[in-house]
Amino acid sequence: MKKKESWMDRVIGSFLGNQDKKFQEILIDQEVVEDIIQIARESHPLEFAALLEGKIKKGVLKVDGLVFLPGETSDQGAVMKTFMMPLTTGTVGSVHSHPIPSREPSTADLQFFAKNGLFHLIIAYPYTEDTIQAYDTFGEMISYRLI
């Protein structure tokens, strides 16, 4: 049964520009995850950050690429210059590494999530599929499936 939207939901969705950005399932291309693991390992002990490229079709968010922007990295964090993102890029969220075993988002991560997309990944040391955690724009854990 489809949930009926209130007039307030429609107004807020229209104002924020996310009325057509609803999805019930998230699919990530296996190659994207393999790239994320490889880049995190090569960047260690520094963090790395990238944007996730994808599209929403028929209620499915499919992530199929990475977008790298200029920025700065350290063992304490990674900063992307999001103002340099090309307008034609279909970004849907972000990914970054934590050079420690924690996948928990920091306060800075949560602020970034809220401003930059619908879906976010954190990969923690030792950088395997099992150390990746997904979050929504509010920092709540969500699930995804590899394809």
Quick description:
A hairpin with a 4-residue loop joins strand 4 (71-73) and strand 5 (78-80).
Task: Report on the biggest sheet.
Answer: 8 strands, mixed
Strand content: 25-35%
Give the averaged pLDDT, no decimals. Answer: 82
Order of helices and strands: HEHEEEEEHEEEE
List the strand order in the largest sheet.
Answer: 9-8-7-6-2-3-1-10
Spans of at least 5 consecutive residues with low confidence: none
Distance between the termini: 27 Å
As a whole number of angstroms, the C-alpha radius of gyration is: 15 Å
Describe this structure in words.
The strands form 2 sheets. Strands 9-8-7-6-2-3-1-10 form an 8-stranded mixed sheet. Strands 4-5 form a two-stranded antiparallel sheet. Strand 8 and strand 9 form a beta hairpin. The longest helix is centred in the N-terminal third of the chain and has 14 residues. It is globular. By secondary structure, the chain is of the alpha/beta class. The protein contains 3 helices and 10 strands, in the order αβαβββββαββββ.
